[in-house]
Design a protein that fits this description.
Layout lengths: L2 H14 L5 H20 L9 H13 L9 H20 L26 H9 L6 H17 L3 H5 L6 E2 L7 E5 L5 E4 L1
Helix pairs in contact: 1-2, 2-4, 3-4, 5-6
């Protein structure tokens, strides 16, 4: 089987059977296109790919020697996830005798603490919402305070419905957020 045809089948599998988001599909498509270009340049078909070939690709992609821009550690980790899933799928379909990516590990991502806003920065951010008509300023301030207080992603806040907010009880209310990977979580 050709790499491009297998890639199309894998992306269709992710979309239909695994319910991957459009953003995940686009990222994986980009990663697998770049990988397929590398394999084509090496004149390798699916049956010739080995763990060291995949590791060689990741090393080349990290520094941009594969023809694309250099990959950060987090982008390389996503690329390894795409490639590992692709080869696992191809092996499960019987298009290759084994999964050469099973032993390939993603690069380590350095630990770092997220940047946080100072109290003054938060005040300035909330003050900046007080522009335009009063009803829009009130809406914008409520949204900014909600994002800051809950740690919700903007996409999670935009997807909220009134039924997602449970304000009953003695303590703080709970908001149901639908996050990445369609995972639901409750935040006070």
């Amino acid at each position: 089987m050709r790499v491009v045809a297998a890639q199309r089948a894998y992306l269709a599998h992710l979309a239909v059977e695994r319910g991957a988001s459009p953003a995940t599909l686009a990222a994986y498509r980009h990663d697998l296109d770049r990988y397929a270009t590398y394999l084509g340049g090496q004149d390798l078909g699916l049956s010739c790919v080995t763990g060291p070939v995949i590791e060689g690709y990741i090393a080349a992609a990290r520094v941009g020697e594969d023809g694309g821009g250099p990959l950060s550690a987090s982008s390389a980790k996503r690329a390894v996830a795409a490639i590992r899933g692709f080869h696992r799928f191809v092996a499960a379909e019987g298009w290759t005798p084994a999964d050469p990516a099973a032993s390939v590990s993603p690069p380590a991502i350095p630990d770092h603490m997220p940047d946080v806003l100072s109290i003054d920065d938060v005040g300035r951010l909330l003050d900046a919402t007080e522009v335009g008509p009063a009803y829009l300023a009130l809406r914008d301030r409520a949204l900014a305070e909600f994002l800051y207080a809950t740690g919700a992603r903007v996409s999670e806040a935009l997807a909220l419905n009134t039924g997602d907010i449970d304000a009953r009880g003695a303590g703080p209310g709970i908001v149901r957020l639908l996050g990445k990977g369609r995972k639901e979580r409750g935040v006070p």
